[in-house]
Each structure stands twice: as structure tokens, then as C-alpha cells.
Write a structure and sequence with these properties.
five-stranded mixed sheet; five-stranded antiparallel sheet; single chain
């Protein structure tokens, strides 16, 4: 049976036909210069020949048929339908012709026979009688008023696609869904169902995330302790900055990159792994600077951090990850103070004094604004080693993060030595991408606290009261040496407990969340001599013993053991 591109075009149209309004004009746009293409901030759905149809749409729907071929083995057939506000399209086409007749020949064309239909944010389509290379935010005036796209139908033909191509295709579909809205992105199963099925439909909740992450990591050969996934995920959702510390070679960087790979559809574009240098003494290595000799240019850092932030801001539905490897090789406050402040205050960072966005080069797709808003879908993970070449963190930094320690115990090393093998990072890619949107939404959510934990998870326990009593008890002991915590820490602990419960689901225990927060938020700031710290550690050991906080108790015992040398701290070389 013939199976040419022309055959597939007809088959798509036949499958689509029953779904379209009865009164319609169908415009096939399958020529080389007419098919769909991705552009910054949108997608050109089609370039349609409307020369004879400028006034033909009153009371009928326009259906633009096209094809997007993002990869060699992938054909994505698209049908954009406009009917609820078709009168706006007719008025727009008349306006372009009249503007040309009135002398605006540089902006518009004599005929509407090569009209580009570009889909932008909010599911709005912009019709323009010349080529569209991108859609600025907000769209320029010459593109006219956006016209709502009622539906965007699609079919996928990819019998020979590789796994990597499938992942990229899913990223394209996700981007289309973000533009038009998931409810208006409708699959036509011309060649069978595709959708997001191979990875899983986008999840509106966290149901199954922790167990899925454990299984995926285990299958990839990545060993993690049973409680780590819930602690790591809850920490990042609570505050988008997490520090991983511990023994060199214990897997801190590997875990950070594995998490990014797991939650991202395309880890190459959604993650930057940056090695911090000992010579980082200003924010230029993170944010770049305006060129003093060429003020109309902006010198972006070679690390790619600034571009990652700019891309994340434009792609708000997916998580993006910045991993700072060995971030204490330099004083963190010297190069990271602006980011720390922006995470806390949610205020924009001043980058340059120009009144326009500055490109790094001609046709830079991501020019730099004068003020940078840190997007809520950007998650920052720093890894830390402790030796003679590194610097200790100040309380200011520690107070703004959850600090998760990595250790290797004898049993874990034994399991690894039984069958040592490298981690299959490729198999992690996109394994949890279906949860990405819910992950971003949760991190951006407003006030949630321990008191909001669903009854189905907490049972009859009064978690809010239990947490308040426990924190006040710890507060008294820490206050004796001036190490008490402030409102920010209390707020974030309550927020962590809520997300830890929701992620863990049925069977969750309050003591596990409290244990994690004593370990990750209260203990990291403790350091000092036996005279100063001895009584506090004794109090905390009793506190943890009474509440069966195993992780924190083990850590406190190690800290007390090192006090025999006269000094101790949370960090262990």
C-alpha cells in the first residue's frame, strides 16, 4: 500500500475531517516554504496562500493544515482551527491590504498570498503578510491583535524514531501545549495513539513520584538511601536552593545531575552543570556584564548560566536546573549574593543601565534585559567538599538552604562491590518528566504548612501542634549559644513538612520529616568549642532520642565524638 508523504497528508486530513466544524475552509500548507517551523517564543503554524480568500471567512472556520519535521525520523502533522473569532481574522487581512495601499510597503505586502500564522503565548495567533522570525514578548505592533486559536489538532508519524527523537518530540508537544493550553491541544490518532504515553501524561499531582524516582534510579544503577528521594524533592520544592555536602566521591554531583535528567524532557537544554572556580570573586561568572567599550553589547558568562535563566523564564512550565559543582571553592557571597537575595526577596536583579535589551551578538535569541527576574522554575543545587582548598559557608548561606549530607556506610559499599558498575545516566532522561509541571507548580505555590496536610495522610495526628512543640523545645536549647532560628527557618520547616507528607503519601510519619529538618536546617549552623557546643549537643541528643530521630541522632553523636579534639562542626572533611 502506498505510503508517501502525500498519502500521509491525505490520511491525516481524512482522520481529522469528522472533528472539524461543518462550515470550514481548509488550507493545506505542505510546501517547503509553507510548513510549520519553531521560532523563539512561538511556532509558525503555516504560511497560507490567501490571495483569493481575503473576505471568504465570514461565518466559516479556517483550518490550517501543515507539517512540522523537527527531526529526520519524525513527522508532526498539525491542524490549527480558528472559528469563534473568525471576524477578527477577516478584519486583520483587510487591514494589511489597506495599510499597503496607504503606502506602508516596508511592513506589509501587496497581497495576502503568503500570510504567516504564528502561534504565541496564550494560544493567540498572529497573521502577518511577511516572514515571521520570532515573537517578542509582548508581540510587536505590526503583528496586530492576537486571534484566539480554538483548537490545535496533531498526529504523529514516527515509526523509525530513536528514543532520543521521541524525547525531543515530547518536548515539542509540551511546548505547543504550554502555548495553546493542554485542553486545546488534541491528538488525532491517525497512526495510533502517541500523546505523551511512552513517558506518561503530564501529572497534576505527585502521586507516585517518589516510588517512580526510586525505581528509575535503581534500574539505572544509582544507589540511594530509602529516604533520600523524598528529602531531596521536598527540599527543592520548599526552597529552590539546596546544598549537597559530604565525602568526596560519594555521588553528590551524580545525584544532582541524575535528578535534573529524571525531571527534564531535554536535560541538555534544561540543565547547566557548572564548575565553580577559585577565582570567582564577583557575579560576572554567573550574570556577565555590559561591555564598557561596546555599551550596546552584553558579555554573557561562558558558563551558560545567564542563558539558562533567560530560557527558563520563557519556558515557565518545565523545571530548569543549575548545578554549581564545588561551590565553596570560592567565597559564595562574592559571586552568588545577588542570586541568594533574589531567591529570598523575589526582586529583580539589576544587570545593566540601558533602556533596551542587550544582545551578546547579532541575532542573539536571548538578549539581556536591564533587570532580571529569577524564574520560579529554576532550581539551584550546589555541591560542597570540605578540605584545605575550600571555604566554610556563612550562616547567611546556610540559613537559605536545606543541607543534605552524603555518606557511604559499610553495608552500602558492600552492596556496590558485589556488582560494581557505572550509572546509566541515559536511561534516566525524562523518566519523571511527566511530574515536571506539578513540581514547578508546587514550588511556586503560596503559603502551605504542616497544618494543611490531608487527613488521609496524617490520620488523627495534630501535626501542626506536634511540630510547634518540637521546634519550641529545640529553640530553647539553641538560644543558649545564640544559635536559635528565625521566622524564615520556622516557615520553611513547616512548608517542608507539608511537602514531605504529600510526596510520601500513605504511611508517612511525622518523625521522618522532623528528623530531616533537624538534620538539614538546624545542625548545619552549629560549630564551636567543647565549652560552647558541648551542652547544646547534649540537649539535642536527648531531644532526638526522645523523638526517635535516627539521622540527626547519628550525626550529633559524631559531632560530640569530634569534640574530644576540642572543636566540632557539621561539616566533616
Amino acid at each position: 500500500m502506498p505510503n508517501t508523504i502525500a498519502d500521509r497528508e491525505k490520511k491525516f486530513q481524512d482522520a481529522l475531517s469528522p472533528l472539524l466544524p461543518t462550515a470550514k475552509h481548509i488550507s493545506p500548507c505542505y510546501g517547503t516554504s509553507n510548513i510549520a517551523r519553531m521560532v523563539p517564543n512561538g511556532v509558525v503554524l503555516a504560511v497560507s496562500n490567501l490571495k483569493e480568500k481575503e473576505n471568504a471567512f465570514a461565518g466559516v472556520a479556517l483550518c490550517l493544515l501543515s507539517r512540522l519535521c523537527p527531526l529526520p525520523n519524525v513527522e508532526l502533522y498539525l491542524a490549527g482551527v480558528i472559528y469563534s473569532e473568525i471576524d477578527k481574522l477577516t478584519a486583520r487581512l483587510k487591514h494589511m491590504l489597506q495599510a499597503f495601499a496607504d503606502g506602508d510597503t516596508s511592513t506589509y505586502s501587496e497581497f495576502n498570498n503568503n500570510t504567516s500564522f504564528c502561534l504565541g503565548k496564550g494560544g493567540l495567533v498572529y497573521a502577518y503578510s511577511k516572514k515571521i522570525s520570532e515573537i517578542d514578548d509582548p508581540p510587536p505592533a505590526h503583528l496586530g491583535e492576537g486571534i484566539p486559536l480554538d483548537s490545535l489538532y496533531y498526529s504523529v508519524y514516527c515509526p523509525n524514531a530513536t528514543r532520543e527523537e521521541v524525547l525531543v518530540l515530547k518536548s515539542v508537544l509540551s511546548s505547543l501545549g504550554n502555548l495553546v493550553g493542554q485542553d486545546r491541544l488534541i491528538e488525532v490518532p491517525t497512526w495510533g495513539q502517541f500523546g505523551l504515553a511512552p513517558i506518561g501524561q503530564v501529572k497534576a499531582s505527585f502521586d507516585g513520584l517518589v516510588s517512580n524516582m526510586k525505581t528509575t534510579f535503581s534500574q539505572a544503577g544509582l544507589l540511594v538511601t530509602s529516604g533520600l528521594p523524598a528529602r531531596l524533592l521536598s527540599s527543592l520544592i520548599t526552597k529552590r536552593f539546596v546544598i549537597l555536602t559530604g565525602l568526596s566521591g560519594s555521588g553528590k554531583t551524580k545525584i544532582a545531575y541524575a535528578l535534573a535528567s529524571y525531571l527534564a524532557l531535554d536535560v541538555a537544554s534544561q540543565c547547566r552543570l557548572v564548575s565553580v572556580g577559585a577565582d570567582w570573586t564577583s557575579n560576572e561568572n554567573i550574570l556577565g556584564y555590559q561591555d564598557a567599550l561596546s555599551p550596546d553589547r552584553y558579555r554573557k558568562p561562558t558558563s551558560g548560566v545567564l542563558d539558562l535563566i533567560l530560557i527558563a523564564e520563557k519556558d515557565s512550565g518545565k523545571p530548569y536546573f543549575l548545578i554549581l559543582d564545588e561551590m565553596n571553592l570560592s567565597h559564595v557571597e562574592r559571586y552568588f549574593a545577588d542570586i541568594l537575595s533574589a531567591i529570598e526577596s523575589k526582586q529583580a536583579i539589576a544587570l545593566h543601565s540601558s533602556d533596551k535589551d542587550l544582545p551578546a551578538f547579532d541575532n542573539d535569541p536571548y538578549p539581556v534585559p536591564s533587570r532580571l527576574n529569577l524564574p520560579p522554575n529554576l532550581f539551584i543545587i550546589g555541591t560542597v567538599n570540605v578540605d584545605e582548598t575550600t571555604y566554610m559557608f556563612s550562616p547567611k548561606v546556610l540559613d537559605r538552604a536545606n543541607v543534605i549530607e552524603f555518606r557511604v556506610v559499610k553495608d552500602e559499599m558492600g552492596d556496590f562491590l558485589d556488582a560494581p558498575k557505572a550509572v546509566d545516566m541515559e536511561s534516566l532522561t525524562g523518566g519523571g518528566a511527566a511530574f515536571g509541571e506539578a513540581f514547578v507548580v508546587a514550588a511556586s505555590s503560596g503559603d502551605v504548612s504542616a497544618g494543611a496536610i490531608p487527613e488521609a495522610i496524617r490520620g488523627t495526628a495534630d501535626v501542626a501542634k506536634d511540630l510547634n512543640d518540637s521546634l519550641l523545645s529545640a529553640f530553647d536549647g539553641l538560644a543558649e549559644i545564640g544559635a536559635e532560628f528565625g521566622y524564615r527557618t520556622a516557615y520553611e520547616i513547616s512548608r517542608f513538612v507539608y511537602f514531605h507528607a504529600v510526596l510520601s503519601g500513605a504511611g508517612w510519619q511525622f518523625k521522618d520529616a522532623l528528623d530531616a529538618q533537624v538534620f538539614q536546617k538546624l545542625l548545619p549552623k552549629l560549630h564551636g568549642s567543647e565549652r560552647r557546643l558541648g551542652p547544646v549537643l547534649e540537649m539535642l541528643e536527648k531531644f532526638c532520642t526522645e523523638r526517635n530521630l535516627e539521622l540527626s541522632l547519628e550525626k550529633i553523636k559524631r559531632m560530640r565524638e569530634r569534640l574530644k579534639d576540642g572543636f566540632t562542626s557539621f561539616a566533616e572533611a
